[in-house]
């Protein structure tokens, strides 16, 4: 089975459609004001209004107020939530949506414990740890830190691009890969050529 692909940090309708045209399975919308890829509710609605069926839309939050998340859920069609802050399992589960818990990996991170702590997560999203930055750093972490017996699906993020995604898939065997900066011409603006090259890398990993 081909590794699934999520292209995150979508801010424009044309980029969402380009991602889908090249084979992405999901797109990510960042509801974090501090992020250069932040979208308002209106921007999010516009970005996904022309998506075809069977494409998942993921909303990314960092320690957001529950009232804000609930407002987004009322106005934007989100299939899954992605939590990048210090949200507890109870906080992640309160919205009756599938969710991923993002973990910023460093050498002392106990990923097996995270899997036990978040048993109802659909997956753990593994990203690079950069002090003071919740995600989207464009930096890669040491993939050998991922236990081979992690008992839930892995979504691999952090510094992925067309040059290293095949290697990442072959080494980690994740359920999915998540890319943002690696397919951009500038922050928040995707590059069709880079998306196409990234998807070729994903396909090559299966050969």
UniProtKB/TrEMBL annotation:
Protein name as catalogued: N-(5'-phosphoribosyl)anthranilate isomerase
Its domain of life reads: Bacteria
Q: A single GO molecular function, which one? A: phosphoribosylanthranilate isomerase activity
Q: Which organism is it from?
A: Methylovorus glucosotrophus (strain SIP3-4)
- EC numbers listed for it are 5.3.1.24
Family listed: Belongs to the TrpF family.
- Biological-process GO terms, alphabetical: L-tryptophan biosynthetic process
* KW Isomerase (keyword) present: yes
- NCBIfam families referenced in this protein's UniProt entry, alphabetically: PRK01222.1-4, PRK01222.1-6
Q: Which residues form the N-(5'phosphoribosyl) anthranilate isomerase (PRAI) domain?
A: 5-199
């Amino acid at each position: 089975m081909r590794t699934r692909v999520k292209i995150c940090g979508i801010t424009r309708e044309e980029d969402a459609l380009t991602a889908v045209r090249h084979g992405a399975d999901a797109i990510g919308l960042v509801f974090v004001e501090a992020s250069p890829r932040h979208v308002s509710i209106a921007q999010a609605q516009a970005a996904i209004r022309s998506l075809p069926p069977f494409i998942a839309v993921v909303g990314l939050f960092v320690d957001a107020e529950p009232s804000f998340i609930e407002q987004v859920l009322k106005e934007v069609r989100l299939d899954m939530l992605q939590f990048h802050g210090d949200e507890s399992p109870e906080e992640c589960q309160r919205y009756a949506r599938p969710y991923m818990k993002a973990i910023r990996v460093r050498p002392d991170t106990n990923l097996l414990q995270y899997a036990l702590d978040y048993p109802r997560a659909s997956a753990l999203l593994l990203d690079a740890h950069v002090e003071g930055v919740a995600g989207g750093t464009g930096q890669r972490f040491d993939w050998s830190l991922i236990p081979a017996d992690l008992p839930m699906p892995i979504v691999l993020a952090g510094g992925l691009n067309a040059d290293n995604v095949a290697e990442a898939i072959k080494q980690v065997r994740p359920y999915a890969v998540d890319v943002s900066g690696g397919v951009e011409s500038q922050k928040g603006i995707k590059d069709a050529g880079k998306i196409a090259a990234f998807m070729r890398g994903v396909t090559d990993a299966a050969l």
